Amino acid sequence: MATRAIDSRIADSRTSKAGARTDARIDTRARRYDPAETKQRVLAAANMLFSSKGFSATGTADIAREADVSEGSIFYHFGSKKALLAELGARYGQTMIEAMQRDDALEDLEPGIIIPRVFEFCRASNLWEGITGSECEVGTPAMVKNPEAEPFYHAAKATTTEWIHRQMTVAMARRGITDVDIEIAASFTHHIVGDAIERILTATTPEEAERVERETVRFVRAACNYNTN
């Protein structure tokens, strides 16, 4: 009888532990498939892997393993690997916008404020702007100047150019300027600043970087009818 009682307690204990393990797996699975959290983990994993290994060398299985989600979740949330890359670009563009605007109203901004903030942001953005250093955990980015990264950069450009268009619209309206084609001006500004970013990031001396920044601000301010004196 005593033996049966002990066996019964052991069985009950094992059943309880097994149930706890099952509950833990259920809880983990429920957490894992929370849509917002799953999407965020996929984006973080893809950002790290694309920037370190490259787009072609990274499979959706690699991303799923790094994010600790099912591979099907990637296609459910993003549709394709290229669409995932484009989503990263759009989010990168939005982060750049936040760095440019900060807490200022759009109409209070002008090129002399915005452009230095862009350069500051890009210097700090290790993964996609080509900077390496002690803070860059994955080493030299594999996607910089890589044709595979076009969906990323196109999405980032579309996001930031739309913001530049809005900022120019309200700033020029405040100043009473009506003879500027803002759509073209916003696109040109994006190209000019983009070229300047590359020059600053590849500058060999601080003086060279300062010269590029100064001339970029002067040029864009002149193009937007600001006083350059």
Explain the overall architecture:
This protein has 229 residues and is mostly helical. The protein has a domain of 137 residues: Tetracycline Repressor, domain 2, CATH 1.10.357. It has 10 helices and no strands.
Shape, please? elongated
Radius of gyration: 25 Å
User: What structural class is derived from the secondary structure elements?
Assistant: mainly alpha
* Terminal Cα span: 101 Å
Number of strands: 0
Strand share of the residues? under 5%
Using the coordinates shown, work out and report the CATH topology of the domain at 87-223: Tetracycline Repressor, domain 2
Instruction: Point out poorly predicted stretches.
Output: 1-6, 24-30, 130-140
Share of helical residues: over 70%
Mean pLDDT: 82
Architecture (CATH level 2) name of the domain at 87-223: Orthogonal Bundle
The main sheet comes to: none
- Top-tier CATH class of the domain at 87-223: Mainly Alpha
Helix and strand succession? HHHHHHHHHH
Number of helices in the DSSP assignment: 10
